[in-house]
């Protein structure tokens, strides 16, 4: 939950910085769009987590488990998918923001972003294979 708040703040700061420079190029608009998607998704994750904690606190004496709350409100898959979408959007926003500076910085940030995304997908795939 804290990580979602930090990432939402970072992506919102990047979004504001891109809006303030008032550049009309397409790459700036694309990067701003990606950071706004990331901000929205991480705020959704943060709000859902807080809602989950409020529900759990109200039922603390009833021995309510996480699985019962997840079944009742269907938080499980939505939250995990939202985190993946948010991380992908913030990484893609960072990659496109590199192209604003120069071609070399854009190339380096794109290569680093693709590497991180592939490592994350590989980690998710290996975790899925191990647990199933």
Topology of this structure?
Blueprint (H helix, E strand, L loop, with lengths): L1 H19 L5 H33 L7 H8 L2 H26 L1 H29 L1
Helix pairs in contact: 1-2, 2-4, 4-5
Major β-sheet, in short? none
Distance between the termini: 26 Å
- Mean pLDDT across residues: 81
Portion in beta strands: under 5%
> What is the number of E strands?
0
- Count of DSSP H/I helices: 5
Report the C-alpha radius of gyration, rounded: 18 Å
Based on Cα principal axes, name the global outline.
flat
How do the helices and strands follow one another from N- to C-terminus?
A: HHHHH
Fraction of residues in helix: over 70%
Q: What structural category do the secondary elements indicate? A: mainly alpha
Poorly predicted ranges: none
Mind explaining what this structure looks like?
The protein has 5 helices and no strands. The chain has helices spanning 2-20, 26-58, 66-73, 76-101, 103-131. Helix 2 (26-58) runs antiparallel to helix 4. It is flat.
List keywords for this structure.
single chain; mainly alpha; 132 residues; flat
Short description:
This protein is an all-alpha fold. The protein has five helices and no strands.
């Amino acid at each position: 939950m804290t990580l979602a708040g930090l990432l939402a703040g970072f992506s919102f700061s990047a979004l504001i910085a891109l809006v303030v420079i008032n550049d009309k190029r397409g790459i700036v608009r694309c990067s701003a769009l990606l950071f706004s998607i990331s901000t929205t998704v991480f705020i959704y994750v943060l709000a859902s987590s807080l809602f989950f904690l409020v529900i759990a606190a109200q039922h603390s004496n009833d021995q309510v488990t996480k699985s019962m709350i997840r079944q009742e409100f269907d938080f499980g898959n939505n939250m995990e998918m939202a985190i993946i979408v948010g991380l992908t959007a913030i990484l893609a926003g960072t990659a496109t923001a590199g192209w604003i500076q120069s071609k070399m910085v854009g190339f380096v940030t794109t290569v680093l972003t693709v590497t991180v995304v592939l490592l994350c997908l590989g980690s998710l795939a290996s975790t899925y294979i191990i647990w199933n």
